[in-house]
Design brief:
Layout lengths: L1 H32 L4 E2 L11 E8 L5 E8 L2 E11 L5 E10 L3 H11 L3 E9 L15 E2 L4 H8 L6 E5 L2 E2 L15 E2 L7 H27 L2 H6 L3
Parallel strand pairs: 1-2, 3-7, 5-8, 9-10
Antiparallel strand pairs: 2-4, 2-6, 3-4, 4-5, 6-8
């Protein structure tokens, strides 16, 4: 019983710790987004989660596809386009989500435009994932965004963050963009309800303690005393 209580309340403490980490993460997002936008060709020392502008020529012949992305219950993929900027510097741009059955037509349309573009959004960092490349798939198909691995596959040097194109959206804002590629990003991090989890673990522990105390009290009453109790 003591071990069960210790486990439940340690889980409660863990969730409270994670709740504090989530609060710090939200504050970091707000601080970063409040900073001025920077030029992707000349990034600052700490570009992560800052607003960014990237101008150059997108290479639609070498677009990378992140598969298994759903929107409005529709299967699709995320398109990651290498962008050549001034000074032969490269950055990867997440231009947004496209439906699976329209991807080739959309890429052909964007390629035919053939003009330089300016993408404005947020610089989003990614942890490199050794398993990001889709084994058995095409060379440009991935299961997750992994900028350095993608750059290596393309033969270009890119930073460990991508330009996520589009407007910032609040936690409860609907996506306004309806023309693929559908772009946009959240101005707050996606987080779990750690406070609710902590309350649940605490409640379970408290309930278990009450049952234990009740059972212990009942066991402490002599049998004769229990028999003599009035009905």
């Amino acid at each position: 019983m003591v071990l069960a209580l210790a486990l439940l309340w340690s889980l409660c403490a863990w969730q409270l710790s994670r709740r504090e980490d989530a609060r710090a993460e939200r504050e970091l997002y707000a601080q970063r987004l409040a900073l001025p936008a920077f030029d992707a060709a000349n990034p600052p020392d700490a570009p992560a989660l800052r607003r960014v502008s990237a101008s150059g020529r997108p290479d639609w012949d070498r677009v990378q596809r992140v598969l298994g992305r759903y929107m409005w219950s529709q299967p699709g993929m995320q398109l990651i386009v290498p962008l050549e900027m001034a000074g032969s510097r490269w950055v990867l741009v997440d231009v947004g989500w496209v439906p699976e059955d329209e991807v080739d037509a959309i890429i052909a349309r964007e390629r035919a435009a053939g003009a330089e573009r300016t993408y404005v959004g947020i610089a989003r960092p990614f942890t490199e994932d050794a398993s990001a490349h889709l084994v058995g798939g095409k060379p440009n198909e991935w299961r997750a965004v992994s900028p350095k691995a993608m750059g290596q596959a393309l033969g270009i040097d890119v930073p460990g963050w991508t330009v996520v194109d589009g407007e910032g959206l609040g936690e409860d804002d609907d996506i306004v963009d309806r023309v693929p590629p559908i772009s946009g990003w959240r101005t707050v991090p996606e987080q779990r309800p750690n406070g609710e989890y902590a309350f649940t673990w605490f409640g379970l522990g408290l309930s278990l303690l009450m049952v234990w105390l009740s059972a212990s009290f009942s066991a402490s009453i002599p049998p004769a005393a229990r028999l003599s109790e009035p009905e």
